[in-house]
Amino acid sequence: MKQIQIYIFKIASISVLYLMFAGCNNEIDPLDEAWDKFEKGNYEGAYLDFSTIGADPEAYTGLGWTALEMDSIDVADRFFQLAETASGTDTIVDIYSGWMVSAWVKGHYQKVVDYADIVLSHHPNYVFAHNTEITKSDVQLHQAFSYFHLGNYIKCNAVISLLNTNWVTTNERDVLLTELESLYQDYN
User: Fold this and answer.
1) What is the distance between the terminal CA atoms of the chain, rounded to a whole angstrom?
2) 2 and 71 inside one domain
3) Domain range for residue 58?
4) CATH no. for residue 148?
5) Tell me, what's the pLDDT at 26?
6) What's the CATH number where 50 sits?
7) Which position among 8, 56, 72, 120 has the lowest Cβ density within 10 Å, counted as fewest Cβ atoms?
8) Cβ atoms of residues 93 and 119 within 8 Å
C-alpha cells in the first residue's frame, strides 16, 4: 500500500512539474494573437488586442491595417503615423503599404506614389505577411493608377510595363484607363 502511495505521489509530482513547465512555454505573444485574429477576419478582436499592447510600432501598424479593414481611414492614418514615428526598419514596409491604401482611398495620389516608392525600395518583392494577397503587384498597380490620376502618363506607362510585359506605351487616356482596369481585374 505504501509503495502505491509513493508511486502515485511521484506521478502526481511529475505531472505538476510538467504542467508548470508546459504552461510557461505555451504563453502566446499578444502581437501574434492579435495578428491571428486579423488574419481570420476578426477585426474587432484584433483591434482590441492591438490596443491593449501599448506603444509598439507593430501594434500601431496592426491597428492601422485593422482600421483600414473596418473602413476607418482617418483612424488608420493616425496609427500609421504613430507606427512610422516609433518604428525601426522592421515594420516600415507594412506601415507604408497600409498608408498607401489609405492615401489611395482619400485621393492623395502623390502620397500613394511616394509610399509605394518606399515599400518597393525597401522590399522589391513585397508581400504583406498578414494578407498574402497584398503583393508588390498591388503596390505597383496603385502607383500606376496614381500616376494616371496625376497626369503623368510616362511613369504610368513605365509601371504598367512592369505588370504587363506585352504593354505598348501610349499617351491615350482611354487606352491607359482600360489597361489599368484590366490589370485591376487580374490582380483582384
Assistant:
1) 71
2) yes
3) 1-87
4) 1.25.40
5) 57
6) 1.25.40.10
7) 8
8) yes
Tell me the three cell numbers of residue 174: 482611354
Q: Specify the residue for cell string 515599400.
A: 119
Of 87, 111, 130, the residue that ends a domain is: 87
The grid cell for 30 is 499578444
Tell me the pTM.
0.81
Q: Which residue has the cell 511529475?
A: 14
- How far apart CA 116 and CA 98 sit, in angstroms, is 10
User: What are residue 135's DSSP bridge partners?
Assistant: 127
Q: Which helix (H) or strand (E) holds 105?
A: helix 92-106
The reply to whether 18 and 104 lie within a common domain is no
Confidence of residue 90 (pLDDT cuts 50, 70, 90): low
CB 46, CB 62: distance < 8 Å: yes
Give the amino acid at 77.
D
C-alpha cell, 149: 490620376
- Which residues, 6 or more positions from 169, have their beta carbon under 8 angstroms from its beta carbon? 157, 161
Could you tell me the CA-to-CA distances from 62 to 10, 25, 158 in Å, in that order?
A: 47, 25, 32
Together in a domain, 23 and 38: yes
pLDDT digits (tens, 9 = 90+) for 141-155: 999 999 999 999 999
The sign of the CA dihedral 140, 109, 184, 94 is: positive
State the Cα–Cα distance between residues 162 and 187, nearest whole angstrom.
13
